[in-house]
């Protein structure tokens, strides 16, 4: 049984969609623009628009001012968001932090865009000092910025307001930049955390995407992409064959996904979603506390349910607990289905196995992680 979901699939496994099982007897295809009728009548476009309206309200953009669709997941949302920015600025440069999801760099390769990698702080957040230096070095071209609402490895949240200030301070006006927000996991969670910074279209952002199979627990990969309606005409092309507009990445799309997402949102409601967010945050803090108590270096960013810690020495152990690892660190994404008992079991086994690893390797002290997670989070002999 998977206890802590890994990075690529930090999925919520606490769900029950039995009520929707009869729909699997039907082929549902949401081809084309969800806001335009198509020639294939067996679709769920009305449910899709309801889901999009819900997210548009969440991210504060009025109906009639936004466009969006239900995607196959966060990667497709990123591909569409970056493409939308590229269509606004064909000669624009893509800026993204070194901690960004691999799909951003994939988008740059696919679209043959110049991509500039920006450094990050120890938290994983984009370094705006480095960003400003890079922007000033390329002032002759528009900026297409990817921001992470929760980075892949550390769960760091890029500061939208500070990035906008950096752009303006570097001489870029609003008509010279486009901001895409990759909110795969946290884009769904942050609106329900009172003290968290707002992700909203009231700020000068161009698009946001989230994954529906992560926090919402859809049983198959899917996602949501919202952008400004004004940007879409440059992408859209009428296709007579489908009697709709071709404006998505994939064309034909899974018609079941919008219904499952709609069901998930309606079943939980805003109060239920907020309670689930709080549960994940509290459980993540508990995991960090248990690790630090065991003298294992661990970091937890504010508003995050991603706990970063010392990388296990045994790959089998990492696979058993579905831990994503990178260089000296690993992480656990604490989702709704994770209980205190599961966390205790993980930490206790980690402690036991760790004693064996250090003994076998002749190590007496844990590795220094100060450069990876900060001096205050390191548990090595120098920093504990």
TrEMBL record:
<keyword id="KW-0663">Pyridoxal phosphate</keyword>
<dbReference type="InterPro" id="IPR021115">
    <property type="entry name" value="Pyridoxal-P_BS"/>
</dbReference>
<feature type="modified residue" description="N6-(pyridoxal phosphate)lysine">
    <location>
        <position position="214"/>
    </location>
</feature>
<dbReference type="InterPro" id="IPR015421">
    <property type="entry name" value="PyrdxlP-dep_Trfase_major"/>
</dbReference>
<comment type="similarity">
    <text>Belongs to the group II decarboxylase family.</text>
</comment>
<dbReference type="InterPro" id="IPR051151">
    <property type="entry name" value="Group_II_Decarboxylase"/>
</dbReference>
<keyword id="KW-0210">Decarboxylase</keyword>
<dbReference type="Pfam" id="PF00282">
    <property type="entry name" value="Pyridoxal_deC"/>
</dbReference>
<dbReference type="InterPro" id="IPR015424">
    <property type="entry name" value="PyrdxlP-dep_Trfase"/>
</dbReference>
<dbReference type="InterPro" id="IPR002129">
    <property type="entry name" value="PyrdxlP-dep_de-COase"/>
</dbReference>
<dbReference type="GO" id="GO:0019752">
    <property type="term" value="P:carboxylic acid metabolic process"/>
</dbReference>
<keyword id="KW-0456">Lyase</keyword>
<dbReference type="GO" id="GO:0016831">
    <property type="term" value="F:carboxy-lyase activity"/>
</dbReference>
<dbReference type="InterPro" id="IPR015422">
    <property type="entry name" value="PyrdxlP-dep_Trfase_small"/>
</dbReference>
<protein>
    <recommendedName>
        <fullName>Serine decarboxylase</fullName>
    </recommendedName>
</protein>
<dbReference type="GO" id="GO:0030170">
    <property type="term" value="F:pyridoxal phosphate binding"/>
</dbReference>
């Amino acid at each position: 049984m998977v206890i802590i979901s890994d990075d690529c699939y930090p999925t919520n496994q606490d769900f029950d969609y039995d009520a929707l099982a009869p729909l699997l007897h039907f082929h549902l295809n949401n081809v084309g623009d969800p806001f335009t009728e198509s020639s294939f009548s067996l679709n769920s476009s009305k449910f899709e628009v309801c889901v999009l309206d819900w997210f548009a309200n969440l991210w504060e953009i009025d109906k009639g001012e936004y466009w969006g669709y239900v995607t196959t997941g966060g990667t497709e949302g990123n591909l569409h968001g970056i493409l939308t920015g590229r269509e606004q600025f064909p000669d624009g440069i893509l800026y993204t932090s070194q901690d960004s999801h691999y799909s951003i760099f994939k988008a740059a390769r696919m679209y043959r865009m110049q991509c500039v990698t920006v450094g990050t702080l120890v938290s994983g957040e984009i370094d705006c000092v480095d960003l400003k230096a890079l922007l000033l070095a390329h002032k002759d071209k528009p900026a297409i910025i990817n921001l992470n609402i929760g980075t892949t490895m550390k769960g760091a949240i890029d500061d939208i307001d500070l990035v906008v200030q950096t752009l303006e301070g570097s001489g870029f006006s609003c008509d010279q930049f486009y901001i895409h927000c990759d909110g795969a996991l946290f884009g769904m969670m942050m609106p329900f955390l009172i003290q968290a910074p707002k992700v909203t279209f009231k700020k000068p952002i161009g698009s946001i995407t989230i994954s529906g199979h992560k926090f919402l627990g859809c049983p198959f990969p899917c996602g949501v992409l919202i952008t400004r309606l004004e940007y879409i005409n440059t992408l859209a092309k009428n296709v007579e064959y489908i009697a709709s507009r071709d404006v998505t990445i994939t064309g034909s799309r899974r018609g079941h996904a919008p219904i499952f997402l709609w069901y998930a949102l309606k079943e939980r409601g805003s109060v239920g979603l907020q309670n689930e967010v709080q549960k994940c945050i509290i459980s993540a803090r508990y995991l960090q506390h248990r690790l630090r108590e065991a003298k294992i270096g661990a970091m937890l960013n504010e508003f995050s349910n991603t706990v970063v810690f010392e990388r296990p020495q045994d790959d089998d152990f990492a696979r058993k607990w579905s831990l994503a690892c990178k260089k000296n660190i690993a992480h656990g994404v604490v989702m709704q289905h994770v209980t205190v008992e599961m966390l205790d079991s993980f930490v206790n086994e980690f402690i036991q196995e760790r004693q064996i690893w250090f003994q076998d390797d002749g190590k007496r002290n844990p590795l220094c992680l100060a450069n990876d997670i900060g001096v205050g989070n390191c548990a090595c002999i120098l920093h504990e």
